Amino acid sequence: xxxxxxGASGYGGLELIRLLHNHPExxxxxxxxxxxxxxxxxxxxxxxxxxxxxxxxxxxxEQLTGYDVLxxxxxxxxxxxxxxxxxxxxxxxxxxxxxxxxxxxxxxxxWYKKAAAPVEAVEQSAYGLTEWNTEEISKAQLxxxxxxxxxxxxxxxxxxxxxxxxxxSSLIIDAKSGVSGAGNTPGPMTHFSETNENFSIYKIHxxxxxxxxxxxxxxxxxxxxxxxxxxxLIPMTRGIMATSYAPVNSGVTKEQLVGCxxxxxxxxxxxxxxxxxxxxxxxQVAGSNYCDIHVxxxxxxNRATIVSVIDNLVKGAAGQAVQNMNVQFGLxxxxxxxxxxxxx
Amino acid sequence: xxxxxxGASGYGGLELIRLLHNHPExxxxxxxxxxxxxxxxxxxxxxxxxxxxxxxxxxxxEQLTGYDVLxxxxxxxxxxxxxxxxxxxxxxxxxxxxxxxxxxxxxxxxWYKKAAAPVEAVEQSAYGLTEWNTEEISKAQLxxxxxxxxxxxxxxxxxxxxxxxxxxSSLIIDAKSGVSGAGNTPGPMTHFSETNENFSIYKIHxxxxxxxxxxxxxxxxxxxxxxxxxxxLIPMTRGIMATSYAPVNSGVTKEQLVGCxxxxxxxxxxxxxxxxxxxxxxxQVAGSNYCDIHVxxxxxxNRATIVSVIDNLVKGAAGQAVQNMNVQFGLxxxxxxxxxxxxx
Amino acid sequence: xxxxxxGASGYGGLELIRLLHNHPExxxxxxxxxxxxxxxxxxxxxxxxxxxxxxxxxxxxEQLTGYDVLxxxxxxxxxxxxxxxxxxxxxxxxxxxxxxxxxxxxxxxxWYKKAAAPVEAVEQSAYGLTEWNTEEISKAQLxxxxxxxxxxxxxxxxxxxxxxxxxxSSLIIDAKSGVSGAGNTPGPMTHFSETNENFSIYKIHxxxxxxxxxxxxxxxxxxxxxxxxxxxLIPMTRGIMATSYAPVNSGVTKEQLVGCxxxxxxxxxxxxxxxxxxxxxxxQVAGSNYCDIHVxxxxxxNRATIVSVIDNLVKGAAGQAVQNMNVQFGLxxxxxxxxxxxxx
Amino acid sequence: xxxxxxGASGYGGLELIRLLHNHPExxxxxxxxxxxxxxxxxxxxxxxxxxxxxxxxxxxxEQLTGYDVLxxxxxxxxxxxxxxxxxxxxxxxxxxxxxxxxxxxxxxxxWYKKAAAPVEAVEQSAYGLTEWNTEEISKAQLxxxxxxxxxxxxxxxxxxxxxxxxxxSSLIIDAKSGVSGAGNTPGPMTHFSETNENFSIYKIHxxxxxxxxxxxxxxxxxxxxxxxxxxxLIPMTRGIMATSYAPVNSGVTKEQLVGCxxxxxxxxxxxxxxxxxxxxxxxQVAGSNYCDIHVxxxxxxNRATIVSVIDNLVKGAAGQAVQNMNVQFGLxxxxxxxxxxxxx
Lengths: 344, 344, 344, 344
Description:
4 copies of one chain form a homotetramer. The first copy, chain A, has 344 residues and is an alpha/beta fold. Chain A has 11 helices and 15 strands. The first copy, chain A, folds into 2 domains: 159 residues, NAD(P)-binding Rossmann-like Domain (Rossmann fold), CATH 3.40.50.720; 165 residues, Dihydrodipicolinate Reductase, domain 2 (2-Layer Sandwich), CATH 3.30.360. Chain A is 29% helix and 20% strand. Chain A has a 7-stranded parallel β-sheet with strand order 3-2-1-4-5-7-6. In chain A, strands 9-10-8-11-15-14-12 form a 7-stranded mixed β-sheet. In chain A, helix 6 packs parallel to helix 11. Chain A is globular and about 65 Å long. Chains A and B meet through strand 8, strand 9, strand 10, strand 11 and strand 13 of A and strand 8, strand 9, strand 10, strand 11 and strand 13 of B.
């Protein structure tokens, strides 16, 4: 396979390179960027020395032809314009940005404050939450790869909502992310001396992943709800934990919740249900494509606490994108994604 | 004033030394420990060289007499036995452990899994949440200094519960702490290579601060409720953030919540209400006795998100203890506590 | 005293505020900045809420009159122009930048790649390495506050060089700093995700503190030498360690080195010589004005390893600046600087 | 291949599992430990759930038979007794501890303060610095895998010493390591709250890797010298940087040093010489088996600064062990070791 990465210098792009480098079906990996055309990639990123001593290519429709698959990892508002014209030339397209995720383009414009992609392109695309949309992904040319927070949230909640074990109407989701989610552009929110040894809350009730979560619950869980969703910044690089709270429906036990989750993900290697845990943490999935889920019911309040962890750059971005590519090409979904988590 | 610190080698003790060292009314500071009697304190803790080149003293009833005030910062189950016999000799006693906090000794034994302190001693003690119990603290000989999580939670929620602006019956509290809260004993939960670059959830629904929070809400907020409370470990040393969620009562606005908080804490210098914030974070109180509170109402769900931050070792432990000492001795409550937060 | 801080929004400025806020002789603290005139300081820096709810003032010669002392904490190349005209109006001036440190203005221009300050102004200024230049500082109007690395290096080496206990001619200095030394402007070198969990070497043999170190050794140690000096970035916020290597002169023992250091700094409270240490580290001085020094002789190579630690923002910047102010005004040098290090 | 790991619960063991899991020639991986026999590995280490749900096996000579290769990653003093009796049953043995590294058993006992391994076993073993000892490694049954510091130091210095481009007689090596080098046993040196935001120097002139470095210089560089060697602890998990200083021999330029290094490692994929670098750092090799080297000559002092970085758990331990296994079995040395560094 001949693969191109648009936005190769961003963190999504770097992680795609890390994963695709050892993917057995990838024969060629070309790197595109909006600036620095001609710069040797390994001069900019010495960690790829000897591996990617090739020049960065200009994002240009002509140059972007002839690929089996193109990944795009760019800021919001770029691929809505860049990808639709490429559909005709028929490579598989996997977009890691939010531009094709929301089927309701009015919602997109409200939350992203940018012009939405053309409706037809949005309609043609498949939402790439692999475990819940495998069939559609396998047929789609354009994949809207999910956001990092929605991936962690939806994977842990959808089975319980769909099976009506929890009361989704009063769902509260307290999410926490490492700093790499903010990307590679330096700014005050990512300045080391003010981020290190600090824990902050941001975009309270206003994060653009809210409509994506609600859309996913409607699509796969068959419930139309509004969630309360907050996001926090952890002084570390990789990892997301989503802690969700909902009342259990009458008489539902922890064992039922665990059973439902295990059943839902039987045969899906990347979702692991951890029934007992003395230390449930982000590091247990670091560097890997796993999503681990843990759940408890508080007998004093009859509320469930549902916790999930992912590596935001892997299952929350590049890893799930590769998983989706595997599905599109009929490969085993784990191809190239068998990394053991880096617990240390 | 002649002051003794019992448990001077723990983190609570070290922080008491840091704060009391520059307290204008403290003339003598003696350091007691359960082990290492005779060791020069500054040999064990080189950061105190030239300041505390004095031997550690043995915790011994005879040696513990003659002090104006004794602080005890020891693990649960120690002061329940150690302090009651000292009451007769009448120094002011400020206990930083949980041993005298719960008025219901059965609850203490259920959550702490240790024998409770004698009922009379517990009844004599005042719960040291300074801003809410000033009068009682000023008269009490024995202060039960609050836990770190309850301090952050109660200060931010009590005004809103008391004034019935939020529906406390479905209160969810998602709390996060730096690692210093786990104390100075090395163990797997605090081993650097497994704690660094990691975020974990622990003691889900089972933290011993739950009954303390519920007791505080009953005592000062006049509501008997059960809370859903979870605790997370942040890869940093100092700081707590408590993010709480509750529906607002009919028609209540953010402005009303802010107004209520500001009014409640008018004249109380250590509680700051931050109405607007682009980055609300733990570092804005680091090293200081402040508790900062921020609140938002989600118009889509009519739920309030109430956030508070403290330095767990200062307002969550040693700082509030000194504040309580000031109240006991009729000093201005800010005496010795005017440190500017170390934002950097 | 009426005090002004020029460059109040930088890290040097923030730290001056932290220290001067509790300085007993400071009555008024005005904050000047090159931009954001009129912004309320505490809106920009919420950690100062209730403390500094005052507008930022414009740096303007007219507004800068009437102060007893002006601190300037600005990037290189600013005070060389800003301060000389203020000399006439006779406040004490303490410059935290490098603009007046090098007596040889040709050297300044070579290393800083900027136009040097007027020669007369440079000549009038006193180099503010407090322990070594007290007399001159006490008489000077303009103080060139030392760089962070030179402070750590010179304090640890000068006594040994001056007393000819080590062979300075082959001195090698391997210095390491926390990230706050890079200031508050976001950039690739300070972007969290690339700085965290990373250790880098930078400006090998090219750091502008090299001529300052060599000038200090010539001035106070009476030796004209060239040093090999490298600098490394530690993934933490505060703290510098300088590890220096030199052969000991014939027969010199560790005890002689320790003795020499202790004698040199007898009566100087901020320099502590730690003769034995199981863990010599930056945290033992964090947040304080101490410089701790530790030394060992390798019997296999007859070389001494001389290690010193400071908090780069305190003894390496704002703390030493306040110490110099104290000396200028005839106060005890520890006034306002009695903070106990934050070991935790 | 059937592979056993002795000491699977330690960090060396965990990293061996991570690397061998995707090694194409490994068919079975059995995990041995000195305690917790029978515990399911993934219960102890949830990050391996679904991958290693197998019981830990007891270290027992009978059980240790039938393997093609046995890795041992245990504390000093264990394999000196454990491995010699296994030699007869003829599996390949790769020891990650220091027990067989020093050919001079008297030196071993002096620096390690433990009884040395039997002299015959030590003599039979090959020192596993792969790039310098390939031939011997390919024939040896027992490999003494190098220490983390010696690997970083020797790879960067040996070519320059062997070619007499630098004066090794006054070599100074200032080494820095992440905390994972201290292993998985909690203690004061690795307690998060005292390690985080802290940088310390330890074992000054006394580290047990000193004789290993000197032996390597004698064996491969043909010079008998004593080095000055210090070690520092960086507040991060993975990574080592060694900064070495030596005078260049008369007239030698940076270009000659770079040329010598490049020539020495031509054809050796894991050693990369970085001639120009704006940010030379440990992250550029994180998670990979690379050793990157950078060098500069100070024209003012005619000294070279030679810097090398490795991931202490990979090229400094498990990665080099797998590389040695590849050499022993006649595989390409990169088999299973093609991970791209995790720069983020």
